[in-house]
Amino acid sequence: MPEKSIREMSEWERRHYSLAAHIFHSTVRCCIILGLIATIIGLGLYTYALSSRYVSDSYNLSRNAQAILDKTVDVGPLVDEVMDRYHGLSDEIKADPYSEEYQAVFADITEREDYQTVISVLRDFLDSSDVEYIYLGMYDLEDEVLIYIADPDDTDTACPPGTWESTKRKGVKKFLNWDGSGTLYDIAHTKTYGWLCTSGYPFLDDDGNKKAFVLTDVSLANVRHGMKEFVIQYSLMIVVLTVVVAVLQTRHMKKALVKPINEVAGAAESYLDDRQHGVIKTDHFSNLNIKTGDEIENLSLLLADMEKSLGLYSEQLKTVTAEKERIATELSLATRIQADMLPNIYPAFPDRSEFDIYASMKPAREVGGDFYDYFLIDDDHLGMVMADVSGKGIPAALFMMASKIIIGNNAMLGKSPAEILEYTNSLICANNREEMFVTVWIGILTISSGKIIASNAGHEYPVLMGKDGKFKTIKDSHGFVVGGFEESTYQNYSMQLEPGSKLFLYTDGVPEATNEADEMFGMDRLIKVLNDAVDGSPETVLSKVSDSVTKFVGNSDQFDDLTMLCMEYKGPVSGSEDGSGK
Predict the structure, then answer these.
(1) Which of 453, 447, 376 is nearest to 421 (CA)?
(2) Distance between CA 169 and CA 171 in Å, rounded?
(3) Where is the domain boundary, 193, 225, 257?
(4) Are 185 and 198 contacting, i.e. CB atoms less than 8 angstroms apart?
(5) Is residue 395 part of a domain?
(6) CATH number at residue 158
(7) What is the per-residue pLDDT for 333?
(8) Range of the domain at 493
(9) For site-directed labelling of 168, which of 228, 265, 447, 497 has its Cα 20 to 30 A away?
(10) What strand order describes the sheet that includes 194-204?
(11) Distance CA 414, CA 444 (A)
(12) Domain boundary residue among 194, 225, 256?
């Protein structure tokens, strides 16, 4: 791919990287690939056919020679004599079949009449055929060798009686275990003769055992030579055809594809130029006369329709933009209103030294569904609320405001947390067609004693730092969510705070904050951060938790609202333990 854009290219570079050039190059590549595939397939078929012919001819020659010898001479005594002498040799003498000592053991065998007869018959077959070698031999599986019995070859490669050559065990077993079905042959590579195809036909004794084989060797050099010529001729033909096809295909594609595309590109360039100069025209593409009957013609028609639609869209865009600005303004106002609905002035109760409290909310959208609240019910009772409305955005914010007002008003009437939740649930369920709900934790702190009476409507567990100076999760009993079931009931439970205790409340957006690896922040990390901040003020505790969540999430989008509250109980003012005075 070019590093420059087409507008930065020279004329030569544009031609080199043009669509026509791509078509030409891709056509050449396809032709070459198809040619290679065809060459491989053709070469395989050619090799198979030629090899099959050689195998068949040599096998038939061996079988015919065996038949003639079987009628002409009894080769059994000759084979037995050679094999007996071979097996009778010591390992030292047997090691070199071409030594004078070794050859002397078998020298007189060439004088035998049956040997001369075998040589004569085999020479006639050799002279009248195209095989390289034909001979009488026997395999020895133990030594993995072929022992020559009679070889009519009169060249330097002739093998006298008893001479042996190493063979592969696989080939030996193939000949010795042949059951008479199919064609008996083996293809192997030797250092002396190269690639040879050896075919054979056996002589059998009275018990049906193989005594010897008439073997023929065919050199596969002819096959390799034929393959080479085939590849050269086929490659030349492919090159010529590739050039011809590429040229013709490129000419056709220029007319059918490249020219119409250039016309569309020219119309697009003209359209952009007019737009930049403020000229409003809607006929750049409709004036094209492309009649290709394919996707390019369809593209030109679609672009013509698009150009007309863009003209209308430009007019509508002004209205839409103004509407979006209005909505953005309203959302910004809603954000401020929601923020003002929650306590946000600190210190919250500057004249009360018995406790310190701090809370924060960071919505996932402009407005959120989480909310917190804290308020003095009377001089000795502090109410605290942490809640999470189902859903997000404006609907959740409206539901949140209604829930907050109902809970706060009921708390000021002196009801217990469970009674507050039950009354709030009945009011919401009475008119909740959207089937929204809210999870709520509400607690009322008796300031003089440090005792909290609380109730939980499906919300997250509170976290408390007690006497040991460690934050721990308080696994309280959950009731059903508010707004879920009209007959829901809730239970009160109590917690005892000692001077210095801290209570941490939160929504699920904190432990469920997710990073780029799709891993959640989790309660274990939250507890660790809280325990690292045990000596800090409530504001410091929330700041460290928020920083840890932000660092953990990284570049991932905030999925849920992050709402937290921390209250530190410092103990009653001296002389006011009974709540009678300050």
Answers:
(1) 453
(2) 5
(3) 225
(4) yes
(5) yes
(6) 3.30.450.20
(7) 66
(8) 347-569
(9) 228
(10) 164-166, 145-150, 133-140, 210-219, 194-204, 185-190
(11) 10
(12) 225
The stretches in the chain having pLDDT less than 70 are: 1-9, 13-14, 16-18, 46-47, 50, 222-227, 278, 280-282, 311, 314-315, 317-318, 321, 326-340, 365-368, 574-582
Give the dihedral sign, CA 148/149/151/155.
positive
Q: How many helices (H) and strands (E) does the chain have?
A: 14, 17
Task: With CA atoms as reference, report the closest residue to 384 among 437, 447, 339.
Answer: 447
Query: Left, alpha or beta for 480 (phi > 0: left; psi -120 to 50: alpha)?
Result: beta
φ/ψ region of 164 (left if φ > 0, alpha if ψ in -120 to 50, else beta) reads: beta
d(CA 308, CA 560): 42
Q: Which residues touch 150 (CB under 8 Å, ≥6 apart)?
A: 78, 115, 118, 119, 122, 135, 136, 161
- Asked if 77 contacts 112 with a C-beta cutoff of 8 angstroms, the reply is no
pLDDT at 577: 47
265 domain-assigned: no
Q: Are residues 364 and 219 in the same domain?
A: no
* d(C-alpha 218, C-alpha 277), whole Å: 85
Q: Which amino acid type is present at position 223?
A: V
Residue 82 one-letter amino acid = V
Contacts of 294 (CB under 8 A, 6+ apart): 256
Cβ atoms of 560 and 361 within 8 Å: the answer is no
Label the pairing between strands 451-457 and 478-479: parallel
CA distances in angstroms from 457 to 312, 325, 461, 526, listed in the order given: 53, 39, 10, 22
User: Rounded distance, CA 522 to CA 423, Å?
Assistant: 33
Residues 521, 511 contacting (CB under 8 angstroms): yes
Would you say 76 and 209 are in contact if contact means Cβ atoms under 8 Å apart? no
Q: What does the chain come to in residues? A: 582
Q: How far is CA 223 from CA 35, 132, 227, 230, 503, in A?
A: 21, 14, 6, 10, 91
d(C-alpha 397, C-alpha 403), whole Å = 10
Place of tokens 């077959």: 125
In DSSP terms, 386 is beta-bridged to 372, 441
Is-contact 200 214, C-beta < 8 A? Answer: yes
Bridge partner residues of 200 (DSSP): 215
If one counts every other C-beta atom within 10 angstroms of the C-beta of residue 407, the result is 24
What are the residues whose beta carbons fall under 8 Å from the beta carbon of 70, sequence distance 6 or more? 203
In a domain, 415, yes or no: yes
Residues 215, 354, single domain; the answer is: no
Within a domain: 121: yes
Looking at the structure of the chain, the number of domains it has is 2
Q: Give the chain's end-to-end CA distance (angstroms, integer).
A: 81
Helix (H) or strand (E) holding 407: helix 393-411
User: Cβ distance 421 to 455 under 8 Å?
Assistant: yes
